Every structure is written in C-alpha cells, then in structure tokens.
Amino acid sequence: MTADQPVFVAGPGPVHTPAVLRHCCDGMRAQLEREPDDDLDPWDDPDVVVVYMPRFDEYGLPIRDGGTSMVVIGYCPWCGARLPESRRDAWFDEMDRLGLDPWEDELPEEFQTDAWWHKGEADGAAREFVEPERVISPA
Questions:
Q1: Which residues belong to any copy of the DUF6980 domain (predicted)?
Q2: CA distances from 101 to 91, 94, 95, 98, 106 (A)
Q3: How far is residue 56's CA from residue 116's CA, in Å, rounded to a whole number?
C-alpha cells in the first residue's frame, strides 16, 4: 500500500499522509484496509465497524442513520492505544483564518483531504500513538 492508495475512509479523496497508513495495530489496519462491499454504501455496510476521517485525523464508529455521522473514539478498540487528537477544531480555525465558509465556499483541494495538516511535518511526527499501560484481555 502506498500513500496515494486510498483506504476505506470517511471523506473524499485518497489519504496523502504516509503516517496515516501506519495505524496503531493490525486490527485497526485490517478494518480500514478491507475492501468495501460494492453493493453497499460503506456507511451502511454492517461489516464496517470503524472509519477514519483523514481531513480531521479522526477515528470513529459509524452511526447507521442513513448519513455520514460517527462517534469519534479516542482509543483503539483492538489494542487500546490512545489515538491521535482530532484536528477538527484546527481545520475550522484554518477555514476562519482563510475567510472560507466550509458549507458555502469551494475549498482548496488540500482542505478536502489530510494534505492540509501534514504539510511541513516530518513523516509520522504528528501521529503519536500511546500504548496502554495495561491491557485487559479475556482469561
């Protein structure tokens, strides 16, 4: 898999950041790299249990209400690692700084993907996963 190859994500366009392709564990990678069912919208596919929104660097559990809502999660459901902090507020702050209305204006392409937040950052430097101090597993 390359940085330009899309993974199942909640948002338009491919994932641009190589660091995003290194999710916290094999369980998370397996969920996000699985091939979606061609007959179903990924938001309606019951086999999709977690989504990733690269624009905001957010992971979430999809809400099956016919839309694209999700509950943002802070920890990996498989390994317990703390996930990167959401960049949603920073994205909206950047929209304000640029004088853009995200609902009315045409946005620059870089703001429709993860390209806006990884510019100038070292590969993977901004995406620290924190391993849990203790893992609880079934006996």
A1: 22-119
A2: 12, 11, 7, 9, 8
A3: 10
